[in-house]
């Protein structure tokens, strides 16, 4: 997930490590906390694979005061995606198997880069995610039915809250899927005047 997100961000513009960390934090939101201890090894792997390259540090471009000690006070190293990295990113955004939607964290990152994903691939990923969440919903319903008479009211409320959250996600995914289908059926997708894709449920 992290390396996919890095390639996606560098696809937009070159960045140094501190910028990448800030952008990743915004992209992933509450899904995951990104530390320099996980970011730099990922950058090293991508560099070794030939997917990114580095430019010499700019002597006057010093890191912010709150940058971690391991970065030093030298100039920032700027990371740029290579042609091989762009090809790899294209391969990743084209994947539509369970690896693209079973994990909620990776699905969230994939969704953030949907503008780089073909329409048919977007639809397959959304449909796959909905199937995954529907299976989770059925499991929660079965668990709730089995334990309803044996748990206290607070545990019951917690279980019901989880079921309500999954119900909201299924509805949200269904709206996204309907939007994708309407857009695909439009003779001129750029002329689609329907509402923007719905926001993710709270």
Please outline the helices and strands.
Blueprint: H1 2-12, E1 15-16, H2 17-28, H3 36-48, E2 52-55, E3 78-81, H4 83-94, H5 104-112, H6 119-147, H7 153-185
Antiparallel strand pairs: 1-3, 2-3
Helix pairs in contact: 1-2, 1-4, 6-7
Pfam families: PadR
Protein name: DNA-binding PadR family transcriptional regulator
InterPro entries: Metal_resp_DNA-bind_regulator, Tscrpt_reg_PadR_N, WH-like_DNA-bd_sf, WH_DNA-bd_sf
The assembly state of the depicted protein chains is: single chain
Structural class, please?
mainly alpha
Task: Give the overall form.
Answer: globular
Q: Within the CATH hierarchy, at the fold level, what is the topology of the largest domain?
A: Arc Repressor Mutant, subunit A
Overall number of domains = 2
CATH architecture of the largest domain: Orthogonal Bundle
What is the CATH class name of the largest domain?
A: Mainly Alpha
Q: Radius of gyration in whole Å, from Cα?
A: 21 Å
